[in-house]
Amino acid sequence: GAVVSQHPSRVICKSGTSVKIECRSLDFQATTMFWYRQFPKQSLMLMATSNEGSKATYEQGVEKDKFLINHASLTLSTLTVTSAHPEDSSFYICSAIDRGNTEAFFGQGTRLTVV
Amino acid sequence: DAKTTQPTSMDCAEGRAANLPCNHSTISGNEYVYWYRQIHSQGPQYIIHGLKNNETNEMASLIITEDRKSSTLILPHATLRDTAVYYCIAADQGGKLIFGQGTELSVKP
């Protein structure tokens, strides 16, 4: 299957700072990327849909000014958690889909801990 | 996206077939049935998907009922490494997946 890579795999930051997470499709061009958040013992929750060259579409209840998404190229999307607080600590996961495929592939996830 | 219903948990003996059911009675005509699994602290892994015909790949088989209201994922010879949460999702081909709670499969020696 196609490879999607996230960086960093885990990050610890201080409360009030911003953190950027990268999601790259390594061997295909991702027309669309998705960002999810997963709290312990819970399922994945879709946060936003990111299309290359256009603004992201956020799910209801997700603050777009807090979770900044940029999809500047067909192989890279970034999620920036601004002014992070301890309640933002979570597992953030991206997925990407190739224009020629029918299934999305996921990154390995980023464990964010805000202290 | 159509909602799916799966058992919360299942056990399977190592080497035996694991049959994971999924109900998706409100699935629409353009929605596929996708199966992913998530091993602890990793991103979900794609397993298989289908529209109405049964599908098989190197990982699993997918059996979809004729009315498309339910399906079964079959892992033919489960190993300990197949222990994971398995998600059944009904979605169109755009890649947007809404995850339910999934089935926690425990493969036991």
How does this model look, in words?
The complex is a heterodimer of chains A (115) and B (109). Chain A is mainly beta. Helix content of chain A is 0%, strand content 54%. Chain A has no helices and 11 strands. In chain A, strands 2, 4, 5, 6, 9, 10 and 11 form a 7-stranded mixed sheet that branches. In chain A, strands 1-3-8-7 form a 4-stranded antiparallel sheet, with no helix packed on it. The termini of chain A are far apart. The mean pLDDT of chain B is 95. Chain B starts with 8 loop residues before the first strand and ends with a strand. Chain B is an all-beta fold. Chain B has no helices and 9 strands. In chain B, the strands form 2 sheets. Chain B has a 5-stranded mixed sheet with strand order 1-9-8-3-4, with no helix packed on it. Chain B has a 4-stranded antiparallel sheet with strand order 2-7-6-5, with no helix packed on it. The A-B interface holds A 1, 4, 6, 32, 34, 36, 43-46, 49, 91, 93, 95-97, 102-109, 111 and B 32, 34, 36, 38, 41-46, 49, 87, 93-102.
Biggest interchain interface, per-side counts: A-B, 25 and 22 residues
Dominant shape of chain B:
globular
Q: What is the mean pLDDT of chain B?
A: 95
Strand content of chain B: over 45%
Q: What proportion of the residues of chain A is helical, as a percent range?
A: under 10%
Q: How would you write the strand order of the largest sheet of chain B?
A: 1-9-8-3-4
How many whole angstroms does the radius of gyration of chain B measure? 13 Å
Q: Which percent bin holds the helix content of chain B?
A: under 10%
Distance between the termini of chain B: 37 Å
How many E strands of chain B? 9
| Proportion of residues in extended strands of chain A | over 45%
What's the multimeric state? heterodimer
